[in-house]
Design brief:
- The chain is α+β, with helices and mostly antiparallel strands and 223 residues long.
- The protein has nine helices and ten strands.
- α5 runs antiparallel to α6.
- The chain is globular.
- InterPro entries: GNAT_dom.
- Its EC number is 2.3.1.87.
Length: 223
């Protein structure tokens, strides 16, 4: 656990899961550009089991972190997990999209599957078989612009290095997240305009401006 001005950063524990998920339902579920564009969740009480499973799946791998205020309330989180550079057939995103019963979440999965095929990380980094992916990052509004995300990303990178994994992946659908990734030293290895990501000659999802590009960023932590 580390002390910072106004808040403390520590790994997410089992007892934190409910509070973390509540924070995400109030922020990421509603605000993330793809979620917002398809109307995936219209309020914090609007359920989306698929997104809840995505966010909670890797919470307790020991790589996810929280920022807590002086009263012990969680004000920011970063959810990370170890992922292969290429999923096995049958567990890939395209298969998941085809099998998804939620039409709104299905559209997001189709975007993610195009992202995976476009980035082709297994070809760009053939010496690696896994990486740590920053899956979700969120801060409650009144605690934004205080450097919380920068610290949570730094903690992620430290934990990744400790496990001997040299790549951290950060995907961005938000223009603001893309700018943050570049400030933090991440390199864009894939980008595509949402208007050009199509199915049946129609864009799958086009978020509101300025969120116009789908991007994948990678940071190599050591050689």
């Amino acid at each position: 656990m580390s002390e910072l001005p106004g808040y403390t950063v520590a790994p997410i524990q089992e007892d934190d899961v409910d509070e973390v998920m509540t924070l995400l339902k109030r922020t990421f579920f509603l605000d993330e550009p793809l979620n917002h564009a398809v109307g995936l969740c219209t309020s914090e009480t609007d359920p989306c089991p698929e997104l809840e499973d995505y966010c909670s799946h890797s919470l307790l791998e020991g790589l996810s972190f929280k920022a807590i205020d002086s009263e012990g309330k969680i004000v920011g989180v970063i959810v990370n997990g170890v992922c292969p550079l290429k999923e096995e057939d049958g567990n890939d995103l395209l298969t998941q999209a085809r099998n998804c019963q939620n039409p709104k979440f299905q559209r997001i999965l189709y975007i993610l599957s195009r992202r995976e095929e476009g980035a082709r990380l297994w070809e760009k980094f053939p010496e690696d078989d896994k990486l740590v992916e920053i899956k979700v990052a969120a801060t409650i509004p009144q605690w934004r612009r205080r450097g919380i995300m920068n610290i949570l990303v730094k903690k992620t990178e430290e934990a990744t290095k400790q496990r001997g994994i040299r790549l951290v992946r950060l995907d961005t659908s938000s223009a603001y997240s893309a700018m943050s990734a570049e400030r933090l030293g991440y390199t864009c290895v894939y980008t595509a305009p949402y208007k050009d990501i199509k199915m049946d000659d129609q864009p799958i999802i086009v978020p509101d401006p300025p969120h116009e590009h789908d991007c994948v960023y990678i940071k190599k932590l050591f050689d």
